[in-house]
Amino acid sequence: MIASRVNRTLKRPPLAGCGNVRVNDVFHGPLAIALQEIEDRFSARNAEREVTVGLFRVPIPDYSAEGFREAMMNAILHRDYSKQGSVFIQWQADHLLITNPGGFPEGVTLDNLLVHEPKPRNPKLAEIFRRIGLVETTGRGVDKIFMGQITYGRPAPDYSRTDADSVRVVLPGGESSLEFAALIFEQDRNGKSLTLDELLILNALHTERRITTQEAGLLTQKGTNAAKSTLERLVERGLVQGVGEKGGRHYMLSSQVYTRLNESSEYVRAKGYDPIQLEQMVISWLEIHPRITRADVMELCSLSKSQATRLLLSMTKKYPEMQREGVGKGTYYSWKDL
């Protein structure tokens, strides 16, 4: 019989915003009983809101029950039992924190957490859990933790506090995007369920507005080629659109998605200006000023240094009137009538 010691605060958050502890429980005894105690207390305090999708009312809990359960099971299965300490579960005002003694199993890092094959630190305990139905045989608990968060319109889990001594996962709480959750539900109801990679990209686009294939490759941990395929699938489904040309191409949520999320104004901000508009802004500047520098273009068009450089160089090739003068930091561009 294996004993487990778990600190847990749970219907209002166990820790108030001012740091006062409302509940502080420590469980001793058979592991299965301790796990059930924790789940019962979690369920009793996990409030729900609703969003209406057509004729359906979709419950949106504060936290995904499945995601929390998998995070808790992972903490029990992968903790280092040779070290002192406890599995620690803390319910803050705006997040859940789950920690366990011992860092990631050998070979698992923050950069391959989503793609590394299952590697339980305690294989016999993992087999017991599988036989009694506490975990499934696929061993993809991490996927469920991520999907549980994103499906309900919340930020992805955060493992960045993990070190060699402890694995720490933060499940962000706070206000969720009900419209984003409704969008995911609609896709599932229409038989077009989204993969974890697709959810990760959509979630990132909803918060960061833009993403490149390289950034998507790092996000999904599967590299640029796989990310490009995922992005193109999302484009075909009308959820994402590409912006810009090769070399400066990025992706953003489609206008249909922004409309569905009731965020049409955000679409305009995310899309920014197209290349023709940017060129016209530069030309309009040169109608008033004798010259323009890269710094001027960066400020005028809200572009990065490399984007401003590409725009100016492309304009010198496209417009004979556009002249590049000076060298190095003294480089500027002028408009000369031919």
Automatic annotation (TrEMBL):
Q: Which domain of life is it from?
A: Archaea
The family database entries (Pfam families) matched by this protein are listed as: HATPase_c_4 (PF13749)
Q: What is this protein called?
A: ATP-dependent DNA helicase RecG C-terminal domain-containing protein
Matching InterPro entries, A to Z?
RecG_C_sf, WH-like_DNA-bd_sf
